[in-house]
Automatic annotation (TrEMBL):
<dbReference type="InterPro" id="IPR050583">
    <property type="entry name" value="Mycobacterial_A85_antigen"/>
</dbReference>
<dbReference type="GO" id="GO:0016787">
    <property type="term" value="F:hydrolase activity"/>
</dbReference>
<protein>
    <submittedName>
        <fullName>S-formylglutathione hydrolase FrmB</fullName>
    </submittedName>
</protein>
<dbReference type="InterPro" id="IPR029058">
    <property type="entry name" value="AB_hydrolase_fold"/>
</dbReference>
<dbReference type="InterPro" id="IPR000801">
    <property type="entry name" value="Esterase-like"/>
</dbReference>
<dbReference type="Pfam" id="PF00756">
    <property type="entry name" value="Esterase"/>
</dbReference>
<keyword id="KW-0378">Hydrolase</keyword>
Amino acid sequence: MAFIDCHFHSESLGVAASMHVILPQVAKSQIGLTSRAYGGKHPTLLLLHGLSDDHTIWMRRTSIERYASQLGIAVIMPAVNRSFYADMVSGPKYWEFISEELPVLARSFFPLAEERELNYVAGLSMGGYGAVKLALSHPNRYAAAASLSGAVDIVERAAAFPADSQLIFGELSTIKNSPNDLFYLADQLVASKQDRPQLYQCCGTEDFLYADNIRFRDYCRAQGLQITYEEESATHDWGYWDRKIQSVLDWLPLPSRS
């Protein structure tokens, strides 16, 4: 794999932005690493960070490069600060950045596939929320989305982080039944009759977000959305996420598995 620490200007944010990128490379003489690559442009996983982290965290806390190398997929890991992947009321337009600007820029920099069936998104905690938000908002762009210990009930989470939430969303009463509410987005997707992305959700049973995850899982199933759900005894920690990102990669609908 090639690893790139990429810094660039964002028009959406009005400042310099950062992302870590890993790209497939077949290297026969590289010791201890199995690698593959598809011909042409690479299938791509957009991998999102949580509330207290940045674009470096997946490379620092997991072996994502080694895991992705075996599959021949590119992984894009951007930084969005404490934005909850939203256009902030009192801050930059991170939703515009992550949903519109970043995919176009990344494909202009690197040989990344544009086809829906070759694009996936995943994240942990705040990033799990962001991943599902992207896939439900743009089901024509992402074939699959995965949430690891995701903050999937944003109405509950906003109340738990009032200072951050007011800067991001403004009045908390406006969040429910808005485009920032995953339950609302699930309703909209079902009503739209568009192709539905495959959904994966996991959470530890001792995680403080466990009840939120059960509510969202049950709501999706009640709406007729197919969602792969896994749980085990675990808390909100990187040992769990390092294991479960491997489960996510095993689950992704890659071309070689079709």
